[in-house]
Amino acid sequence: MTSPTYPLNVDQPYPRNQWWVAAYSAEVERDLLARDILGERVLLYRTEGGEAVALSGICPHRAFPLEKGRLVGDHVQCGYHGFTYGADGGCVLVPSQSGVPQKSSLRCYPVVERGDLVWIWTGRADLADPALLPDLGAVGLGRPDWACEQHPVCEVAARYTLLIENLLDLSHVTFIHATTIPGGEKVAQIPVAVIETDHSLTVQRKGENLPLNPLLKMQFPEQDGPVHQHFDAEYLGPAMIRTGGAVHDAASGQLLGINNFLHMITPAGPTSLRYFVITTRSFGLENPALGQINLGMGTRIQPEDSAAIEAIEQVFQSGVTLPMEISARVDNGALKVRRRLEAQIRSEQSA
Ligand code: FES
Ligand SMILES: [Fe+2]
């Protein structure tokens, strides 16, 4: 049987001292939303003052799912026997008695909203530091001079590490997305470089002297000649990977623009994940058709990736014996990310 943490060689599947995306900001409103995150049921809502709140989502009285209760002001009233909890998780009312039982509070998770995303900290609350978020402005989020599109959230029946590895090896574009990503048929042939910093690891592919395909022509209507185009994959931690990148005029080297796909990956449980995609672009803000194209591409690309990693997850779940894993040079970046992720998980266990 394949280990539940495969391909990581660790005892726990995910790091908990980590910001993960719980929801798009627009999903968190004045009603109760339940999400499974790292194997925990989390209840999300917004206070009357507009603050996003994340509490444990199961009533500690008799395990009723709290999203089936209701909001009373900023309080959550359980729909079963009416135990009521404040936005800090504290139990404020037990209808059948005066006073509340000890230890009857809900867990309250640290939350920050950045880049129109609700980020949740799933580990020790005293370590929750917004400075540990990825640099969102650097990838085009929350910037008035960039356009961005939020793609529909999707759920994938696969362990989150399979999606990380999918994104870090974009040679799959040539095979899985050959007809959905213009120019994708050449990606597997582009040489790879791995660039590491403390906070990121980029598997860089720079396609050189590429002819203008119809998509590039729409994105850069002034452009005549060939371009250099990046098909990078930048690991910004387990919760976020950026793919795509800059396009330059091949003749002058001048930057034409940057088109990113941002992939936010949140484990729902050991073998399931929630997948958020946002496209950001530094050019063509006046042309909403470019946003529609990005959304349309996402609609076709996401199911192709989901189907691939769900097929692998099914192999793992089937219990068949796996062949000895082999890796190619192209996997160097993904293998380094495995080591980073293992180190992150182990550091929590030894702390
Ligand atoms: S289960 Fe919630 S009040 Fe009883
Ligand atoms: Fe893909």
Automatic annotation (TrEMBL):
Its EC number is 1.14.13.82. It comes from the Bacteria. Keywords: 2Fe-2S, Iron, Iron-sulfur, Metal-binding, Methyltransferase, Monooxygenase, Oxidoreductase, Transferase. InterPro entries: Cholesterol_7-desaturase, Rieske_2Fe-2S, Rieske_2Fe-2S_sf, VanA_C_cat. GO terms for molecular function: 2 iron, 2 sulfur cluster binding; metal ion binding; methyltransferase activity; vanillate monooxygenase activity. It is an enzyme of class 1 (oxidoreductase). This is Vanillate O-demethylase monooxygenase subunit. One of its GO terms (biological process) is methylation. Coiled coil: none annotated. Residues 19-120 form the Rieske domain. The lineage of its organism: Bacteria, Pseudomonadati, Pseudomonadota, Alphaproteobacteria, Sphingomonadales. The keyword Nucleotide-binding does not apply. Pfam families: Rieske (PF00355), VanA_C (PF19112). The keyword Iron-sulfur applies.
